[in-house]
Amino acid sequence: MANTEDTNKFERQRQQKLSRIKELGIDPYGGRYDGVEPAKDIKHRFKDGDDTQQAKCAGRIVLLRDIGKLIFITLRDWSGTIQIGLSKSQMGEQWTLAKLLELGDIIGAAGRLGKTKTGEITVWADNVTLLSKSLLPPPEKFHGLSDIDRRFRQRYVDLWANPEVMELFKKRSAIISTIREVLKDSGFMEVETPMMQTIPGGAAAKPFITHHNSLNMDLFLRIAPELFLKRLLVGGMEKVFEINRNFRNEGLSKQHNPEFTMLELYQAYADYFGMMDLTEQIISVLVEKYCEGDHVKFNDETIDFTRPWRRAEYAELLKEYSGCDIDDIASVRAKARELGLGEADTDDAVVINKLFEAVVEDNLVNPTFVIDYPAALCPLTKRKKDNPKYAERFELFIGRMELANAYTELNDPDVQEDNFKTQLRGQEESLATMDADFITALKYGMPPAGGLGIGIDRLVMILAGALSIREVILFPTLRKKTSKE
RNA sequence: GGGAGUGUAGCUCAGCUGGUAGAGCAACGGCCUUUUAAGCCGUAGGUCUUGGGUUCGAGUCCCAACACUCUCACCA
Predict the structure, then answer these.
(1) Quick one: which of A386, A163, A430, A398 has its CA closest to A286?
(2) Domains plus CATH for chain A?
(3) Which helix (H) or strand (E) holds A311?
(4) Which of A411, A452, A408, A474 is nearest to A225 (CA)?
(5) Which residue from A30, A175, A252, A483 lies 20 to 30 Å from A423 (Cα-Cα)?
(6) For every one of its 485 residues, what pLDDT tens digit does chain A have, with 9 covering 90 and above?
(7) How far is the CA of A12 from the C1' of B36 (A)?
(8) Does A139 contact strand B, using a CB cutoff of 7 Å?
(9) Which residue is nearest to nucleotide B65 (CA to C1')?
(10) Interface predicted TM-score (ipTM)
(11) Which 232-251 residues of chain A approach strand B with CB closer than 7 Å?
(12) Is the CB of A368 under 7 A from strand B?
């Protein structure tokens, strides 16, 4: 791998160039460089035929064509690329430096803006500044860096060697900004609640444990912000949201990273139908803004975002895809057994849900709100008034992935306390660990409310066409490198 | 944790049924003032992930370890 003795021979060669540059009295690591214009803007403002135009830019050398007394450089900055032309006759003393430049170096260049014979907009530099000498060889110029492990470990190389990666993360950032705008325009306030909690609650997941020295106590990295955001409802914040990390100590997959970004929001006096409308609205805005049309390609399929999105009852979908009636628990168990889902010593609700996950979820390509979950699976959710077997909850599926989860929040402290005490068999982690202070908060009175969680990483995957969650997280969780370096 | 696959030059990859390692790019030395993955001539670069084994002989076959990928399990 990298950084072995073999690599060092390349590094040594570059070190020698570094020495020669220093001997010329040039600082190889530059400094402040003012007045730089993005490459994209330079190209955009270029007017053909006007040879009085000047330009100044800075970036990394990604291609270099040395034709003797003339050097063409493709410079990449944050906005794109632009060609720099260096000619011996125009550069004078700086020609020595020009000949020492190589792939990967970061330079600044200023001079006349013009075109070459072949029509390429070019900055004919009369001044070149070395801003940072690169000491390691860059990846292959055409294929870029494709070793997937190295791409994630050395994202700093991936980002400039593979421009589409940079574009993806710009898009991610823009998506999150848009979400914030939409919510703020709707009167929501952004808040931050503890990432380190003494009781990990709000979801069924194994937490990471850490320790605080001077308090001498264990803390848990949060698996969800839910119980704190609801405390804010009690406090009188009527529309709150948080976009931040959750941590779950579970397996990794194309859809699971141990730390992932969630939007959670709570709206007083709303319910899960209100959350459905809001979800559809937010995501539709994003599709409109960041996708071409409302039919989005994802994983060789087309997702149809045309509104309104399908709303289907949990029981109805279970019937549709498994043939089982949710109330006929014997047939549900039989089917689960048939599929090898392990239903012994497991509560009915858990078996039903295992079957649902095995049979239904993988079919939901177009946006689908699955509504009215079995109440036993939803300890933090208000039950349906007309049918208390079910809870006022939905999950949104897109592209066979669970993207959002929402419900009418339970605000009855007595029911909540009972739910906390109920432990379902077959479910390793309790859905809701007893949090006495949360019950106390509810006893002061929490307004009826709708709550919504949207998995931001998965949403970005859909909108950007990324098939793995690690493609949309800058530094995904990886195994520690033990061998070599 | 189970299963499948992959690991060869700095990078991207070839290497058939076992006979002692190749290309392109990058590098190094030349030539070249309008190139576009520039071109041409030349040079150098490898404990074929690691450790065992089979064999006269292993990049190639077998076993094990390590890493990565996919997949199943796990997973609001």
Answers:
(1) A398
(2) 5-138 (2.40.50.140), 161-309+366-471 (3.30.930.10)
(3) strand A310-313
(4) A452
(5) A252
(6) 333 444 578 888 999 999 999 999 999 999 999 999 999 999 999 999 888 999 999 999 999 999 999 999 999 999 999 999 999 999 989 999 999 999 999 999 999 999 999 999 999 999 999 999 999 999 989 888 999 989 998 999 999 999 999 999 999 999 999 999 999 999 999 999 999 999 888 888 888 888 999 999 999 999 999 999 999 999 999 999 999 999 998 888 899 999 999 999 999 999 999 999 999 999 999 999 999 999 999 988 899 999 999 999 999 999 999 899 999 999 998 888 888 777 777 788 888 988 898 889 889 999 999 999 999 889 899 999 999 999 999 999 999 999 999 999 999 999 999 888 876 666 655 555 688 999 999 999 999 999 999 999 999 999 999 999 999 999 998 877 653 33
(7) 30
(8) yes
(9) A483
(10) 0.90
(11) 248, 250-251
(12) no
Residue A361 DSSP class: G
Would you say A285 and A349 are in contact if contact means Cβ atoms under 8 Å apart?
no
Q: What is the dihedral of CA A436, A438, A440, A443, to 10 degrees?
A: -130
Cβ-based neighbour number of residue A7 at 10 Å: 14
> Rounded to an integer, what distance in angstroms lies between the CA atom of residue A419 and that of residue A403?
25
CB atoms within 10 A of CB A148: 12
Q: Is the CB of A148 under 7 A from strand B?
A: yes
The rounded distance, in Å, linking the Cα atoms of A263 and A272 is: 16
Measured CA to C1', what is the nucleotide nearest A406? Answer: B76
With CA atoms as reference, report the closest residue to A238 among A229, A246, A247.
A229
Residues of A (103-122) placing their beta carbon closer than 7 angstroms to any atom of strand B are 103, 116-120, 122
CA of A17 to C1' of B11 (A): 21
Residue A7 CA and nucleotide B56 C1' are separated, in Å, by: 37
CA–C1' span, A123 to B32, in Å?
Answer: 22
Please name the nucleotide lying closest to A2, CA to C1'. B10
In strand B, the nucleotides that come within 7 Å of a protein beta carbon are: 1, 9-13, 24-28, 31-39, 45-47, 66-76
Cβ(A362)–Cβ(A400) under 8 Å?
yes
Over the range A68-99, which residues count as b (16 or more CB within 10 Å of their CB) and which as e? eeebbbbbbbebbbbbbbbbeeebeebbebbe
Residues 275-334 of A with CB under 7 A from strand B: none
